[in-house]
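Weekly sync, protein design subgroup
Attendees: M.S., D.O., the rotation student, P.L. (late)

Item 1: inverse folding check
M.S. brought a backbone from last month's batch and wanted to see whether the design step gives back something sensible before we order anything. D.O. pointed out we never logged the input encoding, so this time it goes straight into the notes. Structure tokens as presented (438 positions):
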């Protein structure tokens, strides 16, 4: 199948390369010429495991091209919309500027029978509006909504072997049948593996996506709310999570208490969902998401407070080593990153912050040049008055407490991800504090 992918960020670049890997002929389009020149040379413009390998293999087979010119999308039968829907400046709603611009620029290059497939996360009602615009701009062209559930760090795996596929199809039965047949061909490999396919309407498909992210965010904030209580009564949140997680109705995944969630999706998606529900007159139905957001942001503050408390209130000009900057391991993404936020807040309180991360230093430096950065753990730890672990990269989880104790000035550690063994760290002479752990 000849396909185009409009927007080549974290979602689109992975989607384009994965579609080519699955055997389709792909043209990726983006307005960012630097990103396109990197991708055209089959280099990944950001860190994502397996992406360099599939860019190289699909590129070598001649199935993957990139362009800054939307006209190059012409001739493809299926056009994926994978542009960003960031939070609006000064509000909670999603900014649809990029989605609208992508559709408008694509319309002159569509042919009757073409299928536009929305993958971006949008407020419910967007697909119907865009479908009308596509039908008006190119009679005979159609639109489907096919939300994406990939996780950064596992994006290639999640795209090639998804755990489910959702098709939001047009209401016209003929268009729906054509769109479904095209999507079935696109996802033939996953369908042959018995991946569940949910066939539904636009609005359900749009809601599935935001509901999934709202649920995940709620699960994390639930355990972080329990951590707040555990801190008061000296209970242990990790044992609590294990114990409730053994109940298969609850499950242990996404019950890791810590500095909370960040990234380009969960925080802005729950805010956009709240804003959309208010527009629909159902603000109260998801008003709990405001609390989910508030709990989440309090955890960042809690880490900062713990550092100040452990330093006896004297943080000014104390060297604090911040381990991690990306919003999660195996990513260089610092959008709404709790780790970067903690580093910035500590710096704002007067600490001499030295932040270390294996992949996210360049992105962090662009946003916050006022911080001192290194990619070398030893440099970060040397002479530190306190250490704060905020992104659980494997190399930080596996840190040898005895080796680290020899480098720092004072052996104080705040484990913002509850990923270290407190007994081992205490045995090596450290004062250890976790999140919701006695
Ligand atoms: C999330 C969803 O998991 C994907 O299914 C979805 O496709 C994606 O958003 C999206 O909308 O594009 P992602 O943002 O890559 O994926 O990251 P997650 O793995 O969900 O982690 C989000 C944040 O939650 C991270 O900061 C992580 O550290 C934090 N987290 C996760 C916790 O604090 N505790 C946990 O137990 C799990």
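Designed sequence read out in the meeting:
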């Amino acid at each position: 199948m000849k396909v185009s992918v409009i927007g080549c960020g974290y979602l689109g670049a992975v989607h384009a390369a994965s579609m080519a890997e699955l055997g389709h002929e792909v043209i990726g389009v983006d307005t960012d010429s630097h990103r396109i020149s990197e991708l055209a040379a089959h280099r990944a413009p950001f860190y994502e495991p397996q992406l360099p390998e599939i860019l190289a293999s699909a590129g070598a087979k001649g199935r993957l091209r990139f362009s800054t010119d939307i006209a190059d999308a012409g001739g493809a039968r299926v056009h994926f919309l994978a542009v960003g829907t960031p939070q609006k400046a000064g509000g909670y709603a999603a900014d649809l500027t990029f989605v609208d611009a992508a559709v408008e620029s694509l319309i002159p290059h569509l042919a009757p029978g073409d299928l536009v497939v929305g993958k971006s996360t949008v407020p419910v009602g967007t697909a119907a509006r865009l479908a009308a615009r596509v039908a008006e701009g190119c009679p005979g062209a159609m639109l489907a909504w096919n939300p994406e559930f990939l996780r950064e760090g596992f994006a290639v795996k999640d795209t090639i072997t998804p755990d489910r596929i959702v098709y939001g199809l047009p209401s016209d039965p003929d268009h729906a049948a054509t769109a479904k047949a095209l999507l079935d061909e696109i996802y033939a490999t996953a369908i042959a593996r018995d991946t569940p396919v949910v066939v539904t309407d636009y609005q359900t498909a749009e809601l599935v996506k935001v509901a999934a992210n709202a649920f995940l965010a709620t699960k994390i904030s639930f355990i972080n709310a329990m951590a707040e209580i555990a801190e008061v009564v000296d209970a242990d949140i990790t044992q609590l999570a294990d114990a409730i997680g053994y109940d298969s109705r609850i499950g242990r995944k996404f019950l890791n208490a810590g500095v909370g969630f960040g990234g380009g999706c969960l925080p802005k998606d729950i805010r956009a969902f709240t804003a959309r529900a208010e527009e629909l007159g159902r603000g109260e139905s998801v008003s709990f998401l405001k609390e989910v957001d508030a709990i989440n942001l309090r955890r960042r503050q809690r880490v900062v407070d713990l550092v100040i408390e452990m330093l006896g209130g004297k943080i000014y000009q104390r060297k604090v080593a911040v381990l991690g900057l990306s919003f999660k391991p195996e990513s260089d993404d610092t959008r709404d990153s709790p780790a970067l936020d903690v580093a910035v807040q500590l710096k704002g309180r007067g600490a001499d912050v030295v932040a270390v991360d294996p992949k996210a230093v360049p992105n962090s430096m662009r946003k916050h040049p006022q911080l001192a950065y290194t990619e070398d753990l030893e440099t970060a730890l040397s002479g530190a008055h306190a250490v704060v672990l905020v992104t659980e990269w494997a190399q930080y989880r596996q840190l040898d407490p005895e080796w680290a104790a020899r480098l720092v000035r004072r052996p104080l550690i705040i484990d913002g991800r509850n990923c270290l063994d407190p007994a081992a760290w205490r045995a090596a002479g450290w004062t250890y504090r976790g999140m919701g752990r006695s």
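Discussion: The longest strand covers residues 2-6. DSSP finds 18 helices and 14 strands in the chain.
Action: P.L. to compare against the previous round before Friday.
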